[in-house]
């Protein structure tokens, strides 16, 4: 990867780039065809503290790293800057800080991945910490080689055109509405019914437009493997500027066939929570990460370009 990356060190060309040039630039730099998918998996739950620990110690709250909003009640599905998590610094290890954060929010049904148990949320937090640990090693190499003003960084940071923002919104939908992209009609009908119910979490519901589906999820949907990171999807006709309620209706009324063909993301909708040694086997296989350094090249390049 270093040989390929050296071609990007000289910085930008004189002529301004247009988005159409970026796919070839990204490919020639050695980034994977699944760049947007892989980056999305790595950044969807990042916090300021995580960025400082793994990538850039002086990162601020104005960091430019988009993440999924952990508050499922919020109209703001995706945050354009990774937020402060409020880790308890009395703990000295990253693991206990992450564990404490989950435990402090264990009674908040709107926090984090919906339908996950507390144990499952802990497992997810540790899974992501391992991914960032692996990416950190690649980041330390890349920061010595790559010019943040290069054409590659220009393309990597264009999250509206390179697919990152679209995939992040789709991941947010999977997190908020487990089973929504599983192809199961019961899940979609459930959420549409909820979207027409009274939202008890919102004041003045009769006055304000309802934008978020009411709390509550089909109990048997536990989405544990977002394989959207492994395939390319066509987002034409899907406007993530719409509210959750509006987008759910669009999916049901206008894009049902498209959703069935392209947005059934092969995500494994597991009907078993992590509540036994037998069920742990399937979860363990999902949580295991690749060992090859090249698997973390995409996220390392993305984090460097976004933060510098």
Describe the structure.
- The structure is a single chain.
- Strands 1-2 form a two-stranded antiparallel ribbon. The protein has a two-stranded antiparallel ribbon with strand order 3-4.
- Helix 3 (35-43) packs across helix 8 (164-176), helix 6 (118-142) crosses helix 13 (297-307) and helix 9 crosses helix 10 (244-253).
- The protein is mainly alpha-helical and 308 residues long.
- The longest helix is centred in the middle third of the chain and has 25 residues, at 118-142.
- It has helices at 2-6, 22-28, 35-43, 48-54, 94-104, 118-142, 151-156, 164-176, 185-195, 244-253, 256-263, 277-287, 297-307; strands spanning 67-68, 78-79, 222-225, 268-270.
- The radius of gyration is 20 Å and the shape is globular.
Secondary structure layout:
Elements lengths: L1 H5 L15 H7 L6 H9 L4 H7 L12 E2 L9 E2 L14 H11 L13 H25 L8 H6 L7 H13 L8 H11 L26 E4 L18 H10 L2 H8 L4 E3 L6 H11 L9 H11 L1
Antiparallel strand pairs: 1-2, 3-4
Q: What class do helices, strands and sheet pairing give?
A: mainly alpha
**Mean of pLDDT:** 81
Radius of gyration equals 20 Å
Shape: globular
Low-confidence parts: 9-14, 198-209
Structural features:
308 residues, mainly alpha, two-stranded antiparallel ribbon, two-stranded antiparallel sheet, 4 strands, globular
């Amino acid at each position: 990867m270093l040989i390929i990356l050296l071609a990007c060190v000289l910085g930008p060309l004189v002529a301004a780039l247009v988005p159409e040039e970026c796919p070839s630039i990204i490919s020639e730099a050695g980034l994977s065809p699944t760049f947007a998918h892989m980056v999305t998996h790595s950044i969807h739950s990042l916090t300021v503290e995580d960025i400082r620990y793994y990538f850039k110690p002086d990162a601020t709250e104005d960091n430019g790293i988009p993440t999924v909003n952990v508050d499922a009640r919020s109209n703001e599905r995706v945050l354009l800057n990774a937020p402060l998590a409020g880790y308890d610094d009395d703990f000295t290890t990253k693991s206990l800080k992450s564990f404490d954060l989950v435990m402090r929010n264990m009674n908040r049904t709107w926090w984090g991945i919906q339908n996950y148990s507390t144990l499952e949320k802990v497992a997810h937090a540790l899974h992501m910490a391992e991914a960032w640990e692996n990416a950190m090693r690649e980041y330390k190499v890349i920061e010595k080689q790559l010019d943040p003003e290069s054409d590659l960084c220009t393309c990597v940071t264009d999250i509206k055109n390179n697919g990152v923002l679209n995939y992040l919104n789709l991941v947010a939908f999977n997190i908020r509405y487990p089973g929504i992209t599983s192809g199961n009609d019961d899940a979609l009908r459930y959420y549409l019914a909820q979207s027409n119910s009274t939202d008890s979490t919102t004041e003045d519901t009769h006055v304000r437009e309802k934008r978020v589906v009411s709390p509550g999820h089909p109990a048997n949907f536990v989405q544990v493997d977002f394989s959207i990171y492994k395939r390319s999807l066509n987002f034409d006709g899907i406007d993530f500027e719409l509210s959750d309620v509006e987008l759910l209706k669009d999916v049901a009324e206008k894009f049902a066939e498209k959703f069935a063909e392209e947005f059934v993301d092969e995500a494994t909708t597991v009907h078993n929570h992590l509540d036994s040694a037998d069920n742990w086997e399937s979860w363990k296989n999902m949580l295991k990460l690749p060992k090859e350094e090249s698997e973390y090249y995409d996220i390392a390049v993305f984090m460097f370009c976004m933060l510098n």
